[in-house]
Specification:
heterodimer, A: six-stranded mixed beta sheet, six-stranded antiparallel β-barrel, 9 helices, 20 strands, B: OB fold (Dihydrolipoamide Acetyltransferase, E2P), three-stranded antiparallel beta sheet
Chain lengths: 375, 129
Amino acid sequence: MEEKNKTPLYKKHVELNANIVDFANYRMPMQYSSIFKETKAVRNSAGLFDVSHMGEIEVSGDNATEFINCLVTFDISKIKDFQAKYTVMLNERGGIIDDLLIYKLEEKYLIVVNASNQKKDFDWIKKHENGGVEVQNVSENYFQIALQGPLSEKIIKRIVKNDPSDLKFYHSKKENILDIPVLLSRTGYTGEDGFEVYGKSSEAEKIWDRIMKEGKQYDISPCGLGARDLLRLEMGYCLYGNDITAETTPLEANLSWVVSLDKKNFIGKDVLLKQKEEGVKRKLVGILVPGKRIPRHGNRILIKQEEVGIITSGNYSPNMGSSIALGYISKPYDKVGTKVEIEIRNTATEGEIIKLPFWKHGTVKKTSLEKKQSG
Amino acid sequence: MEIKIPKDLLYTEDHEWARKENGEITEGITDFAQAELQDIVFIELPEVGQEVVQGDSIATIEAVKTVTDLYAAVSGKIVKVNKELEKKPELINKDPYDTGWIVKIKVSDPAELETLLVPSEYKKVIQEE
């Protein structure tokens, strides 16, 4: 059997008696106590996630900006130092190779990719490499910890040198925790205010312990992949492999906000332009399914017994008190308010297309709104 | 995580447990099963009075990670269901062998009890998974 990778925090998960599962070739914590409890901790106070399984690719060199701009949909020449941008990388058919977070860090770009796509992404980027850039897979060098929840700022404030309250959403800065240099980023995948901390793998345990210790008074909870998946679904965020794949385009997946069609060129652009002109045939939508029957990936979406779409993610949301799902549905059935049926174990279960996000009280919105208001 | 396998119960390969009491069994899912399923959100219970055959699907358990059926450990008549689970399905996670019990079946063929697994045999089943 192939040896599974372990993150630098693996020992912590074992100490905390986590239920450990195989995920993207890593031994990762699914949950420590209960997925629901951990989900609620993030919505109400704070949760700490080990996301060191995520891949990191560095791109540097004189032509780095131009080079990355050919590979991703957003125009990254628009982002400033220490700003981060969520975007996607496409194949020639306009299908999504991966969704990624790109940081501009003075002399280089740091691209954070899905664990399961690490090698695929690196190979793709390398394949297109031309003069004037250097591309390195530095995934093993970095730990990544996500502190998420409305009380995150209070916790992080106590352990970093400079007040982080002016750090805007999707911005980052160099910081020190216990005199260990880290990259502190106001980002996350939960819909709540929060920070992601990147640093040298060998320092991961010290940083984890420091945050857990200071978070105790704020009811911090270690959180596993189960809570992470549920939290992102409550926000309608896409999960690669489920909601977005090499067969879906960003226009179908409601990701046109990360696509700069006015940019000179990028792989997949011609396909997107054509799709925009002709109109997409299907859309990713949010479906509220009252009750506790859970729609699952692959369940059919029906209207009057006719198949009109397919569920890509589904779960029960304890915060909403209802089941929720994402799925692709053919036009023109994608409108908010449309009543559908989902075939769950041969039983048609009623649902309704609703406007995303499902969870509308996420604290992250306030931050981005403030950002908009302040220009 | 330490999986509990009480010594005084019988088991199935599908991760049900059964407790013998005066010609009836109380049935539920094992600690291993609840840990695999994670947070249980919903259970569809059978009707009291229903006649079942060993191996029949008698309840559906909807959990965060997946959905699973509860199979009758023995043939017989369902004499009681744990109504408390309709309001508190999480009892199965918290206390799978006691307050998280699911059904009671009046055993029609006591010989079927011999086909169930003893704790040491069940332990082997979960070690192989």
